[in-house]
Amino acid sequence: MTKQSLIFSLSFLCFFIYHLTTSTTLALSPAQAPSQTRAQAPAKSPTSTQPAVEPPSEVPLVQAPPHRARAAPTNVTKILDKAGGFSVFIRLLKSTSVSIQIENQLNVSNSLTIFAPTNGAFSALKPGTLNSLSTEEKVQLVQYHILPSFVSLQNFQTLSNPVRTQASNTYDFPLNITVEGSWVNISTGIVNTTISATVYEDNQLAIYKVDKVLLPLGIFAPRPKPRLAPSPSPVKPSSSSSALDSPVAALDASNGPSLITTNGLVRTIDGAVVLVATIFFMGFL
After folding, report:
1. Is the domain of 88 the same as that of 207?
2. pTM metric for this prediction
3. Rounded to an integer, what distance in angstroms lies between the CA atom of residue 268 and that of residue 153?
4. Hey, which end of the chain has fewer CB within 10 Å, N or C?
5. Domain span at residue 125?
6. So which residues are the signal peptide here (predicted)?
7. What is the pLDDT of residues 102-136, one digit of tens each?
């Protein structure tokens, strides 16, 4: 094969390949055109008027206040137990159920002030003092140590005497509180003491330590002994009284001179008694 024949053959082959490629492209383009148009249509719609829909947000429009767990009421007996030295007063609070009353009052936002006597204060009492009290008196004794409001150390001077306690009344249960400098003096009419320390204090409850048991007049006031009525003295018969005052004259067993009375009794020398009618005696005279 000559050189010219080889060049001619290559040229014919290139023309054939070009012609084949062009024919295939023209044959396929009409079928693909609609598919490409439909696929690109959503991206080429700038004139759409429908707003875009967004998923709901998890963040509320109005924020709820943060949830706060309700605080439990202050447990007075636990505070006293933790402080130490108040076991007798704790036992009284529980046995009289006053501790439950305190818990209920604090639960409804009532404020209280408690004077807590130490164990030494109860030891200073006469033996058998607490055992001699009735259940009602024990309740009143404990309530006498509680004020129905919160009082800080700086505000005791603003109180008016007698100070009201949770006991019955201020007449039988008076409590006087005075302030001298930094000392808070407490007087019951029987006991005088002072606040020696602060056991616990917040905006609702104050517990103060006292070194003496507050003894109220309504329970521990000395009572006068009842006077016994004098026994009636025996009445001696008068010699000048008339024998008619008594139905029967007294009889004397001893022998004596004869005595005749107007009621019809006759005493003889030998002691024999003879009943004589009064009418008969008066007729004889």
Report:
1. yes
2. 0.56
3. 96
4. C
5. 76-220
6. 1-27
7. 999 998 878 999 999 999 999 999 999 999 999 99
